[in-house]
Amino acid sequence: MTPFSDHSEFAACQPNRDELRQRLATAGLRATTQRILILESLVVLPGHPTAEQVHRQVAATEPTVSLGTVYKTLDSFVAAGLTKRVASAEGACRRYDSDCTAHHHLYCTDTKEIIDYSNPELDALIREFFASHGLGNFQPHSFSLHIAGSRTSS
C-alpha cells in the first residue's frame, strides 16, 4: 500500500469467486451465495462503503437480499476478522473496510471520503510512545488512527 490509498484500485478488478470462497472458509464462514455477493461488493466498491452502498450493489444482482441481511453479514465479517468497521467522523453511518492490514484513516470533512494512510515511521513512534509511557493496566495489541481534516490544494 502506498502511504495514501482510497481503494479505487480495487474497483477496477473483479475478484475471483473461488478466492472469495476461500477467504470466507479461512474466516470460518460458509460460502453462501449471499455472503459471496456481499464480500464481492465490499471488495469492488471504492473507498469504505456503507451497508446501504453494499446493499445497492448486491440488489442489482440479487434483489431478494434485504438490507438487514447485509448488515448482519457485514457484522459477521467483522467478527470473523474478514473486514473492519470504520467510523465516519459524522458518526451517522457505519462504513466498512475490506483491507484488514494495519493502516490509519484520514477523514475529509469536506468530501466525506475516508482515505487509507500507512506509514511505518508513524507506527514506530506510536509503539515507542506507549512502550515508554504505558497505559496503566492496559497492553495495546494494535492501533489505528482516525484523523479528521480537509484536503488541501497542494
TrEMBL record:
GO biological process assignments: negative regulation of DNA-templated transcription; regulation of secondary metabolite biosynthetic process
Cofactor(s) named in the record: Zn(2+)
Record flagged with keyword Signal: no
Keywords in alphabetical order: DNA-binding, Metal-binding, Repressor, Transcription, Transcription regulation, Zinc
GO molecular function, one term: transcription cis-regulatory region binding
Sequence positions that bind Zn(2+): 108
Pfam families: FUR
Highest taxon above the source species: Bacteria
Keyword Electron transport: no
Cofactor, free-text remark: Binds 1 zinc ion per subunit.
InterPro entries recorded: FUR, Fur_C, WH-like_DNA-bd_sf, WH_DNA-bd_sf
Family assignment from sequence similarity: Belongs to the Fur family.
Protein name from the UniProt record: Transcriptional repressor
Organism: Hymenobacter cellulosilyticus
Source organism phylogeny: Bacteria, Pseudomonadati, Bacteroidota, Cytophagia, Cytophagales
